[in-house]
Amino acid sequence: MQALALGEQNKEVIRADKLQRLHTLHNLALLVKQGLEGLPGVGPTLRDSQLEGEAQSLRDGYLAESVAKLAVADKEYRDSLVTMDHVHDEKGRSGNALPDCTNMSSPSYICTP
Fold this sequence. Notes:
The protein contains three helices and no strands. The termini are far apart. The longest helix is centred in the middle third of the chain and has 40 residues, at 51-90. Helix content is 58%, strand content 0%. It is elongated, with a radius of gyration of 24 Å. By secondary structure, it is mainly α. The relative contact order is 0.09. It has helices spanning 2-9, 18-34, 51-90. The protein has one domain.
């Protein structure tokens, strides 16, 4: 609980990234779920019931950002393969630089060129 309080009090000086906040919220939610009786100096707060929801919200946002970045990288990769095919065609070379995937809905990094 102290970690969250310190983070809130000093947010202008100390910046915790989303992953740090996710770990803090997740671990606190686990502690609350297991019970705070064995932890000296730690008592229940009004926010305890919200910890899991806050952690899940951060987790969802973090994963969405990662999936979006992966989609951009996948598109750039596929675009570069198309460009390579055009260069090959212009130079009269045979062959296809595009990966041969049986399931084109899968990300291109799973396919082999």
